[in-house]
Amino acid sequence: MQVQIMGKCKICGSxxxxxxxxxxxxxxxxxxxxxxxAKVDRCVKRHGLLRGVKRLLVGVSGGKDSVSLLHILSHxxxxxxxxxxxxxxxxxxxxxxxxxxxxxxxxxxAGVDIDVVDIKEEYGFTIRxxxxxxxxxxxSRPPCSVCGTVKRYILNKYAVEKGFDAVATGHNLDDFTxxxxxxxxxxxxxxxxxxxxxxxxxxxxxxxxxxxxxxVSNEETRKYVLANDLPVVESSCPYKPPPRKxxxxxxxxxxxIEGEIPGFKxxxxxxxxxxxxxxxxxxxxxxxxxxxxxxPSSGKVxxxxxxxxxxxxxxxxxxxx
Length: 321
Ligand code: Q46
Ligand code: ZN
Ligand code: ZN
Known about the structure:
The chain has helices at 29-46, 64-77, 95-110, 119-123, 127-135, 143-161, 173-186, 189-192, 218-228, 245-260, 264-280, 303-320; strands at residues 18-20, 25-27, 55-59, 82-89, 113-118, 166-168, 198-199, 208-210, 288-289, 296-297. The protein is an alpha/beta fold. Strands 5-4-3-6-8-7 form a 6-stranded mixed sheet, with helices on both faces. It has a two-stranded antiparallel ribbon with strand order 1-2. A two-stranded antiparallel ribbon has the order 9-10. The longest helix is centred in the middle third of the chain and has 19 residues, at 143-161. The termini are far apart. The model has no long low-confidence stretch (mean pLDDT 95). Residues 290, 292-293, 295, 297, 301-302, 304-305 line the site of one zinc ion.
């Protein structure tokens, strides 16, 4: 059996927790946590993520990224701005209940209030309903696509109605590099321009969106959770599809290059933000108000209301069969 020998923390000399390439040595749990927090703080300052933000809503799913995000933000800025967590109960068997427990514990640990929006109570369907209808070919959108629309809509609506200045989500460096590379390869410029740390509101009913973990990798949030003993959901979503071939091949290659050239991911995404996106000059969508719910929409009816109508119709047909 191979025994891994941990060095001592480069800063304080106590037992090392993990090797940190940026330090060319080990850091203990305490200094590793401070290192990640400092990385987030630099990103927040460099990209003006909290510019004009007095009240911040953090979307917490119970997963490692959002739980780390809440912990880091409350540690760094808890005394200066009001932070609140929001958990969306998607009604996914086992997974939603376990995620809610983790999110609630994480909020308590961070000293932050948490609220829950239950989509069954609010809108009459769950992601389980959507998944079953999809399997029976009664709706065409797969569960993750439904889930994405639902989460985006609810986070924004809640933030706008309760007067939050911005919504923070736990997208990390690996999400940014993977999505950006796939968007470049497939020519999805409309999605590529959204791969930024901050998307300013362009409508009175749209909250500014920020992604403070944009320079923190998957591996780093995983270790941050371990270093701070944070509660995270253990089970995984039963509807998670296997990764798409193109996306997983690209992610694998990006990881390989990062292994050879540490800092590659940050360089890629940094150049995208500073040099490539400013050249694209894509006009931002013109938004109006949805005729059904009044929230911002590019068409007469917003994508959430169209989705809700489709699911509700398919469910009521089922009931009367
Ligand atoms: S919860 Fe929802 Fe994920 Fe489950 S249905 Fe897909 S998007 S996999 S992060
Ligand atoms: Zn130390
Ligand atoms: Zn609507």
